[in-house]
Design brief:
- By secondary structure, the protein is an alpha+beta fold.
- The strands form 2 sheets. The chain has a 6-stranded mixed beta sheet, with helices on both faces.
- It is built from 17 helices and 12 strands.
- The termini are far apart.
- The protein is globular, with a radius of gyration of 25 Å.
- It has 2 domains: 206 residues, Metalloenzyme, LuxS/M16 peptidase-like (Cytochrome Bc1 Complex, Chain A, domain 1, 2-Layer Sandwich), CATH 3.30.830.10; 207 residues, Metalloenzyme, LuxS/M16 peptidase-like (Cytochrome Bc1 Complex, Chain A, domain 1), CATH 3.30.830.
Length: 461
Amino acid sequence: MTDVTPAMTFHPQPTPGAPTPWAFPAPERTTLANGLTVLSCHRPGQQLVAVDVQLDAPLAAEPAGLDGVANILARALNEGTDSLDAEQFAAELERAGATLDTSTDHPGLRVSLEVPASRLERGLTLLADALRAPALPEAEIERLVANRLDEITHEQANPARRAAKALYATLFDGADRLSRPRNGTTDTVKNITRAAVQEFYAGYVRPSTATAVVVGDLTGVDLPALLEATLGRWTAGPATPSTHAPVVADDAGRVVIVDRPGSVQTQLLIGRIGPDRHDPAWAAQLLGTYCLGGTLTSRLDRVLREEKGYTYGVRAFAQPLRSGADGSGRALMAISGSVDTASTAPALEDTWKILRTLAAEGLTDAEREESVQYLVGVAPLKYETAGSVASTLADQVEQSLPDDYQARIYRELAELETAAATAAVVAAYPADRLVTVLVGDAAAIAEPVRALGIGEVTVVS
């Protein structure tokens, strides 16, 4: 046999190109004839167009004794219009390849549409009809109320939900809507009728105080004309934008134990209020909080998960609550996780040690650099879809922030120094001004927690 040497041709290895500068997209702002404000963003290649409509229907506007009526209204917007019943409306959405979702939070109600660019007109027509003339059928309202009552029962079995409910009730005065569950309680939801839903709709679903965000590939689309022909058909009388009361909380250090006899785990939720996105310290606070508990390599996880094995993970985060154009808002600063029952007191003790060490020694340059690389570096991927861009722009509208806010925050994050991040996170999580909620077996954890001296301990059922 003759030896054959195979011949191989090696092609040159590709080399990476120069990185493309990235910035959060800047929207264009217009106003329709009916008063609806529109923010639009052309994103070439994004064939799934996202439309978010932010309605000025704050939870604080719900009538006394009817907490949750905004949530029932939001869910009912999917249940038919003046020309389509619930089944027909769902079928038309499916035919257009569209989805329509709704949600409620303290600042207002949001309706979100995603639809292929090729069917944008049909999707916007259905969205406009849902806002302009929802059927709000009595049978569907009764079904939605019954579903919500069932959800409340299930939420009572969810430790994380119970912890959040207890924390808000502890931090805020009972007269403040923030102190009560967003979607209502059994005592309030059972009182919701079709008439109550219709009245809330008539009072707060108006184009003159609403904003629509449209993001996607708008090539060849005459967007102003299309919006006038669809959302422009939605009319209602003028209204004055809502104002929000200042957020006030009692964050004196104390512990509330929600008793779950026999529980093998304890749900931890530690919180207080701090600056929100209007505050100049927000970017530094965001960076410092990420160093504290934003990732698997953060200080909290490194000690409580990796070194001690108390938990599968602990996170620190900031959740904006409500804010006005005057920048009067606040954010919930929180640490959340779960541990086995026997580790409850040791985990809390180590958490307080971490916070005190942070205050005494500060963050390291390495922690700052790693967090900046992630927060700034992941942004192009985070906002790769039209939906994520639309949602963030709608958040800015909800919180009365300028259109360039998100782009500015990323620039600030890239330039922040370690000392600024340290100062912000230490101010956000002072060890003596934290309210701790524990959902677990009070008989097993109450005395060890009292011995820590982190605040008066109260046990509730």
